[in-house]
Amino acid sequence: MGEFDLIKRYFVRDPALGVSSDAVALGIGDDCAVLNPTPGMQWLVSCDMLVEGRHFLSTVAPERLAHKALAVNLSDLAACGATPRAFTLALALPRADAVWLAGFAKGLFALADAHGIALVGGDTTQGPLNICVTVMGEVPRGQALLRSGARVGDDIYVSGTVGDARLALEVFRGTAVLAGEAFEQARRAMECPQPRVGLGQALRGLATSAIDVSDGLIGDLGHILQRSSVGACLAVDALPRSAVLASQSLALQRECGLAGGDDYELIFTAPVVAREAVRQASLNCATPITRIGHIEAEPGLRLADAQGQALVAEFSSFDHFKTS
């Protein structure tokens, strides 16, 4: 199977089956896609790459791998409050495996259709397995959620639960033990994250800052603090966790929840006076949220345990170039 046969067979869709989007004037088939910006909107663009052995295990099912490749990009749009409109896919493959490609395309388009986003182009080549997705979305002009708007006194929230993806990784590493459905739940969290697009859109005009949890809650919240020139106090044991993670030792719960990464939940800040509006936004998009701390003037991040006592512990988030 040649490159262009591969593209046509697995990634060019029948118009009756694919997403119909007025954002797309011309999709796959030319040197460039032609997109239509909506009047009064600003476009947001983000790109993430997944590399085998670095971001995912070789044993992951192709449907789940495709889901995650798109989901982590949609999560960036969610963190900015954007509506997804189009995406491209650059795919390096060791070989043209028809079974693998069919599964990959199925997982990719299932999530794309769920969020109304169209594949409009990309590239394919032969090489070590590598997946790079670029997403494009839009928000009303001036309404994008950014990392730089947190203010002293704001509440800090996180969506969903955190830590299951890291727990699954520890099971694969052999440092934690889970069996049956408990392991499958943790593994689903790692391989099939759910981008919080609806919540991001609902928070426009309410949240003062936002970011998604990709490299670990500690590190990602730190980006907000740095860009906003503020500090924070975090109630470590208030972090929302699943029953599976809650069954582990407190030390492992904290490590997974604070430094685990791969959660793709949203951390955001909002004024205290907006608590009821934030709660209603959460209900409207059926996405649970938990208040986990507050913004302070003093720079840096302070951790407190369930009794409000300062927690002296070192947690480090994921870093692609960290060697130790």
Structure notes:
The protein has 324 residues and is of the alpha+beta class. The chain contains 10 helices and 12 strands. It has helices at residues 3-10, 62-79, 98-114, 164-173, 180-191, 197-202, 217-228, 243-246, 250-259, 275-284; strands spanning 24-26, 34-35, 41-51, 83-93, 118-126, 130-140, 155-159, 209-212, 231-235, 266-270, 289-296, 300-304. The strands form 3 sheets. It has a 6-stranded mixed beta sheet, with helices on both faces. It has a 4-stranded mixed beta sheet with strand order 3-6-4-5, covered by helices on one side. Strand 4, helix 3 and strand 5 (118-126) form a beta-alpha-beta unit. It is globular, with a radius of gyration of 20 Å. The model has no long low-confidence stretch (mean pLDDT 92).
List the helices and strands and how they pair.
Blueprint: H1 3-10, E1 24-26, E2 34-35, E3 41-51, H2 62-79, E4 83-93, H3 98-114, E5 118-126, E6 130-140, E7 155-159, H4 164-173, H5 180-191, H6 197-202, E8 209-212, H7 217-228, E9 231-235, H8 243-246, H9 250-259, E10 266-270, H10 275-284, E11 289-296, E12 300-304
Parallel strand pairs: 4-5, 9-12
Antiparallel strand pairs: 1-2, 3-6, 4-6, 7-10, 7-11, 8-10, 9-11
Helix pairs in contact: 2-3, 4-5, 4-9
Binding site for Mg(2+) 5: 215
Protein name: Thiamine-monophosphate kinase
Enzyme class: transferase
